[in-house]
């Protein structure tokens, strides 16, 4: 599979030791703290692209076997010869993939996590928006169910069929349409790979206003359809602010085009917003117009140790104030997550020699390196003098910068290295962000399921880390083996806890198939009613991405 | 009227001379260019708040007299005694204003431009969301038309009644609900005045992520309902990105509450987006949750002369690159606009002694003054060495900073000082931004309607200025008197021109009553159909803000 090679690049080699970083014990003061940065952010970006690891898992069971309660809707027609005949009038033979004895269409039927597997017999890969329109109109008229699919890197089973839905792959709709190098507005097809878009922009001095681990595979249309958050949200805000226009094909084949939209346009409801984060349930995004900022040319990364989650919050407020406009990432990690990562990255030295209850990774990016260096240095000096930061290092070159990021980015892989991992991606009010990890550990211990040493226990530990700037916590429950008891202990406990704090049960991954039934933990009955109204308005036959979302 | 006093504060007094600014002729090089800034941005903000001037106009004719083709909808019931009885069960006597011989409710019936005047006999001023809900449910059940009204500072007649609609004023729903000084999330009632919200935030080291001239009167709910753009869009992006949650009452009285939303929440369609910019046609915003950035503590302003609109664009690209994260405003003005302003501000010296075809005002705001100064100085040095900038000054203190802004902010008033002004607020692709001004002047001259000297001609000149960063042009046609010929010459010419360049006929002012019939110049039939679908979905009886929008 193509994606294995793309996604297998994340292994940390021994070349990447944090050898040269300057560790500054608090007793030593900040005098030796040497601040340095990295100008080549192209390489930084590609570094970010390799943290997935799931594809080594064995082929999953069919989704229908795992979820026998989910039934195929009788209203959907089964694919017939005459349907294929019609699609052949719209698409060339190369644009139609049929399942046969040699081809099970596994790439299109299986999700990236290898948790879900559908049974589609037909993949359509149109090259134009008009082809998408004709396909959807026909499917709507004929009651044929359709799953729109981008790079298929989603984490909630939203991009693969459950039964025999037709896969509508946007892979071949992949042209950059236009770039305005004065305004920074990029217009491109939905199927353009995020990394390709960002590299195109890099050559012109601009940057794509979001970034995420799967950038080498995921599509620009896919990130819009799922409202992906990713690594630059703290700096550039959400796609609801940066996407200026969309081209969307509705289930009935009608094309809604706002690709000419400018930065300001107050004439009518902002229709495109409905499709950002709609996960392919009310329309298929075929084109994206997005505002891209000027590419920063200086990056700094610092890795700090602090004594409590309260200190994490205080350092965050201080960083917003002193680093201001150049702060581009503020990530926190707990000691447990770093202990797991130390085991996994056994041939690397941890950036900080002593243990600390919490760690912080701060990234700055700006237009002038010596200014950024001075701001970071002053900020760290103050934070250490105030006793907020106990220890810290600052990357001196690009290799060190990458290495520091590794201690954040390798947590997911490290969490599952002991056997497996239950992953939760939630949002919580900042003050409550870490309380979920404590609560989960307490619950697992009370239940007698958890022990770091005792290998007879299924759970090793629950660890927490995430994007403080976005209020986004990743709770990973590292396990030695998956058991029904652990699942029962965690669910719906985690969702109930998040709901009790007015959090979101899906900060950035979406609902898809996995969380369809849990939307009530994040949305009121009134909101769910309105969501269903809209689904019914645009897709009355429910042909788009059925069995998911709502 | 209260608003006269608030809005009359913009007159420039002779105290505000740009005496101390250092003008640097290009021959003199950049060595003397002294860059300075201002730390007290509270005063800066209040400076921004006083550029309105319309309230001196006489009371307008009734809208129904000016627009006899617009007919009252028969489906709406006329207000009766039993309706008042009901409202008295919901609101106290102080919250109900009835028209009588001493009170024509002019403040609520007339718009700020004094172009429109309705005939409402009843103003309801609820203090709670529950009261809003009861009022709307009753009005919906009884087919009573309602106009939601915030600060009533809109420019398109969207916030005042056309006939006898009940005015639902949000003025008394005006509490700050909550502020989280770690995340920067502010939650407040819709009726909080923008300036009050910003001052509340200033005391806590934060800033409201948008700003506009009417900040002393307009409501937070109003700017959300109209998706106001304003002065900080270049830096902080649109409200679609910064608003995290809303509390909205639907026409049937149902309350949709997403006030607990966090920065990331991917569970369902982003319903709140529909109400941002809906101009009170599908729901009444009663609460707003918004993400506020840390307040910058250093401001710089520079005023530059360049030789062409092409040079304006080049300087913009250069500013984005070199000023990067601290660029907070990039405004341009043509020579004609400055000539009118020189007449109007006759007791002030223009910042630049020689005439230039175009002028640019650049504002930076950042977290560290000496860094900002150095960046601005280096940027100006390069721009002058390359011959892009012919002349320029940089404010040395807060007074000068305000004075430089005056030459941009007083253009509207100066444009109408000769008798009157036709104002157009449009968005165009950046490369075409100024072409509309040239085209309008050419058309007016061809038609023999325009002359700067000849006072027998109705038109003095068309002038252009605006927010380059947002692609937002203000076209002001300064006239000696309003005539049908001028109107016929300008409309639909301006809208057709904008449409031919794929621009927007309303960049930030909205549709309201004024532009309702012109939406087709900016939106496709498909989009208009979808907008009407949504209006019908949420407001099937059309009780909310009728005769406007769509």
Structure description:
- The structure is a homodimer of 550-residue chains.
- With 550 residues, chain A is an alpha+beta fold.
- Chain A has four domains: 15-39 and 297-402, Alpha-Beta Plaits (2-Layer Sandwich); 54-169, Uridine Diphospho-n-acetylenolpyruvylglucosamine Reductase, domain 2; 176-291, 2-Layer Sandwich (Uridine Diphospho-n-acetylenolpyruvylglucosamine Reductase, domain 3), CATH 3.30.465; 418-510, 2-Layer Sandwich (Alpha-Beta Plaits).
- Chain A is 31% helix and 18% strand.
- Chain A has helices at 2-7, 41-48, 63-66, 81-90, 106-109, 129-142, 194-202, 220-225, 233-236, 239-242, 272-275, 309-322, 335-344, 369-385, 398-409, 411-416, 435-446, 484-490, 493-500, 525-538; strands at residues 24-25, 96-98, 122-124, 146-149, 166-169, 176-180, 185-189, 243-249, 255-257, 284-291, 298-306, 327-334, 358-366, 391-394, 420-427, 459-467, 472-479.
- In chain A, the strands form three sheets. In chain A, strands 1-14-11-13-12-16-17-15 form an eight-stranded antiparallel sheet, sandwiched between helices. The first copy, chain A, has a five-stranded antiparallel sheet with strand order 6-7-10-8-9.
- In chain A, a hairpin with a 4-residue loop joins strand 6 (176-180) and strand 7 (185-189).
- In chain A, helix 12 (309-322) packs antiparallel against helix 14 (369-385).
- Chain A is globular, with a radius of gyration of 24 Å.
- Chain A starts with a helix and ends in a 12-residue tail after the last helix.
- Chains A and B meet through helix 10, strand 9, helix 12, helix 14 and helix 20 of A and helix 10, strand 9, helix 12, helix 14 and helix 20 of B.
- Chains A, B: Keywords: FAD, Flavoprotein, Metal-binding, Mitochondrion, Oxidoreductase, Transit peptide, Zinc.
- Chains A, B: Its main location: mitochondrion.
- Chains A, B: It is an enzyme of class 1 (oxidoreductase).
- Chains A, B: InterPro entries: FAD-bd_oxidored_4_C, FAD-bd_PCMH, FAD-bd_PCMH-like_sf, FAD-bd_PCMH_sub1, FAD-bd_PCMH_sub2, FAD-linked_Oxase-like_C, FAD-oxidored/transferase_4, Oxid_FAD_bind_N.
- Chains A, B: It holds the Pfam family FAD_binding_4.
